[in-house]
Each structure stands twice: as structure tokens, then as C-alpha cells.
Amino acid sequence: MLTVYSNDELQLTADVLVVGGGPAAAWAAWTAASQGVKVIIVDKGFLGTSGAAAASGNGIMAPSPENWDKVLSERYRLGNNLANLRWIERVIEKTWLSLPLVENWGYRFPKENGESVRQSYYGPEYMRVLRKNLLRVGVQILDQSPALELLLADDGSVAGARGVQRQNHRTYTIRASAVVLANGGCAFLSKALGCNTNTGDGLLMAVEAGGELSSMEASNHYAISTAFNATVTRGVPFGWASYSDEAGNDLGGYINGRRDPSFLPNALMKGPVYARLDRATPEVKAVIEKSHFIAFLPYKKAGIDPYAERVPVTLVLEGTVRGTGGIRIVNDNCGTKVPGLYAAGDAASREFLAGLASGGGGPNAAWAISTGQWAGEGAAAFAKSLGSHAHERIVCPAGSVGLRSQSPTSETFDSEAIVRGVQAEMFPLEKNYLRCEQRLLNSLAKLETLWQQLQKTPKQDTVRDVEFSRRAAALVAVARWAYFSALHRTETRSEHIRIDYPQTDPNQLYYQATGGLDRLWVRRDWITDAIAKAPVITTQTTPSVSKL
């Protein structure tokens, strides 16, 4: 990989390596360091400003104890029988106990009657405080240093990672006793606010190392945005909008006073949709402009009064970032199938918290705080169990597609063209929102063609070439897993909509694990003993599937 810079490669060692730069990564690094181990954290951007959390404000699912039961039951209801009560309770409790720490580190929550109100955070300040705290406890931070592949020891356990440093134009290798993947989900470079660093790299790295994914069919979350600046995906203000078509006809869009989540996708497939925030009272205006101020910046820049003028709206794909699918975790410390490898935040499957529904916003913020700490604890304990000889293990890189040629020819592939090809299959509502067997098969066939193109030689003249080649591979891989899982869940449940199976099947109470690179597979992991069955594994190559 990038042999032109091999002589300048940075080589480091750590007990725990954390990959990512958002809240989950920061909490994991702090927790591991608190256990007395050496921690390095690598981020694709600048830890503190990159990622979805740093881009704006966000709610936190951290109710006061007297409301725990209410929030617990509501989250379980939204999970449509696939969420896990014990995990929801763990997340709520851990988050509630953790937020005073943030205040002690210097974050100023608003106060009411002298008491701190810890129900939301202002992203830039929250992440600034987390970064400052990591430096205080001695965590080494490598910014602008995307990790691209894991290292494996000869016994199959994780042993570190390799990546590139953009600013120094070199590769790096970090030998580590344990690794936490907390580098986000995948929004397919849709330009959703803060999500362009979320390209599924961690998911690909985990599968290459022997890990599994789960609930990848819940990978099609779309968020509302103004069409003239389709990046700020903050939906709360649109809860007070009136919707109309191009001719000005009222389109409705509400059920019992609440916005119908299925209204806008179906309306947009018929033609342009316009919104005007004329349902907002003066009191509501004051609240939403303060708590979601970034949603109003596009209006101010364009000189638009959103309360009086109609603006065109659209939907932006946020994929697994506000969806559910991610790396399958197998124990309470967020461990994966790979010894020494842990997952946290949006990189991990949130099925225990949300089922196949979105955990976007407050629930995912709480998930990042809690799973980050559990993963950090698990990684630190694993590192200590290996002792001082961990870095003497014989290791090999686990990465393949997008890093090393799988073809005897020297022909290179066009990473930008491959990205456009993925987006052509993942962005359209008629393909990804309203799914059916034939559309899924058609898209899988096209994605398989892109996967075969990735077997050619990646362009590696610069560190950016290396990064973008690998990014293209991750996007194709995640798209294939998402649609392959969607193909095999033959029902409509929460955000997974199959127009050829429009009903929710009460017998499909299982999570779908998935994985594989050239050969994809799906396994049913049944949830309750009452319907426990032997695992049903479906394994086929994508070309075979596309001919059904």
C-alpha cells in the first residue's frame, strides 16, 4: 500500500487503538485511558469538528430516573418487538450517570431553578470539551489520519491497524493489543450534515477481519432538508410546516396532528413538494430557532422567511447513520466475533436499542456515550490480559479490495465513477425506500459489477488516492450488504419497507446477521426462546442472486 512512502512510515504501539473522531470514539478512548492503559485515537478528520455530532446541536436520551420506565417502554414500542429491554435500560442508566462527567470537564449545560438540564448538547462545544479531556488524560490523537485496514495476529485476534496521514503524506502502522471501531456508519457521501466522513470504512474493516454485521436492511433512513441547500437534515422545524405541491394545493401530511413519516417520500415521487413553517406559534419559533439554529442558516443566507414563504424540500439519504445496521456486537462490552475487536456508536448495530427503526437524535447520542464506555472498558481489559508481549505477535494486514489488486492486470479503477455508481443505486426513493424483490436484484447486479471493477489495481500515487480507492470499496461493500439483507427480510417492519411484502410478519422475530466479501451470506438470529430455531443461513454469490 502506497509503497512510494514506505520508507517514511510512522510506526507506533498502544494498548488500545480507537478508530474514529466522534462522541463514541472519544468516550471509548477516555474510558480505556482511565483503566491505566496507553491509548491512541486516529480520526479521518480533526477530532472535535468532524462527524455528525460536531456539526450541530442534538438531543440526548437521558431522562431523569422517575421517567426511565416511560422512556424505556416507548423505545421498546418503537422497536416493533426487535429492541431489547435490558439494553435500552442499560443505555438510559449509563447515559444519565455519565453526563455529570461532561459538566465536570467543562461543558455548561443550561440550568433551570439552579439544576442542570442535561437533555441536549451543542455539538461543537461538546466535542471541544471531549477532545480537551482526552489530551488531559494522555490520549495520543492523530488527526487527518484515516485508518484503512486492521492487522491480525496469527491466532485471529486483532493486532492494530494501518492507515494514511494526509498532511504528512505517509502511511502509518499502529500495533495495538485491542481496537475499538467507532468511526461511524455510512451515508454514501450524500452530503447530509456532518456525514461525509461516514463512509462505512469500519464495517468493511470488521468483515475483512472476520467480524459480522447485523440489521443491515435498516440502512435506508432519509431526512428532510431544503432542496436549495440539501445538506442540513434537521427535521424538527418541519413538524410545524404546511406542505403543498407546485400549484399550491395543500398536501396534508399529518396524522392526528403529527407529521406522517411516509407522507413526504410518497409525495416526492409524484412531484415537487414545498413547505412553509406557518404552523409554528411565536413560542415554538423561539424554541426551534434556538435549539435548531443551524436549520435556519440556509434561509438567512438566501434571504427567505420560512414562516411566510414556500420553499422546495427534499429527502437526503443518511443510510446507517440514523438507521440501525452496523457491526454485530456479541457481549455487554460491545465485543465482536474477532478477539480484541470492539465496536461503538454508529459503527455498531443499534438493533438492541431501536430494532429496525431509527435511533437518530437522542437515542443514538445516548448509544454513543454508553457503548463508547463499554467498548473502552472491554478493550482495556483485553489488552491487559495479553500482557507485555502482545506486540511480539506475528501480524498481517487484513485489508484487500481497494488496497491491493485482486487482478493479474495492471489496469486501475476509477474510484469517483464507482462512487457515482453506488449513489445511483442507493439514493433514489423508488429503489431504496420502496423496496421489492426485482428492484433489489437489479441493484445487486449493478453493485456486483462495481465490486468486480474494484478487483483491479487501485490508484495509489498519493495518500488521497489510497484513501479514495479504499472509500469506494467500502461504499460498494456496505451497499451490497444492505440490499442483500433487505432481499432476505420478506416483510415490512419499521423503516424496512417491502412493497411486495407490505405487512409485518409476527413470525420474523429475528435479527439478520450478514457478511462476506465476494460471497455474501445472511443468517437469522432468533430473538426469543418461544420461536427459537436452528440458524437459517443463505449463502450465494451476488451474480447468482441477480439471475433469480
From TrEMBL:
Organism: Amazonocrinis nigriterrae CENA67
UniProt-listed InterPro entries: FAD-dep_OxRdtase_2_FAD-bd, FAD/NAD-bd_sf, Fum_R/Succ_DH_flav-like_C_sf, Fum_Rdtase/Succ_DH_flav-like_C, SdhA/FrdA/AprA, Succ_DH/fumarate_Rdtase_cat_sf
Oxidoreductase found in the keyword field: yes
Name by which UniProt lists this protein: FAD-binding protein
Keywords: Flavoprotein, Oxidoreductase
Signal peptide location: none
GO MF, one example: steroid dehydrogenase activity, acting on the CH-CH group of donors
All residue ranges annotated as the Fumarate reductase/succinate dehydrogenase flavoprotein-like C-terminal domain in the record: 435-509
FAD-dependent oxidoreductase 2 FAD-binding domain segment(s): 15-217
Keyword Flavoprotein tagged: yes
Cited PANTHER family: SUCCINATE DEHYDROGENASE 2 FLAVOPROTEIN SUBUNIT, SUCCINATE DEHYDROGENASE [UBIQUINONE] FLAVOPROTEIN SUBUNIT, MITOCHONDRIAL
Active-site positions on this chain: 259 (proton acceptor)
Pfam annotation, one family: Succ_DH_flav_C
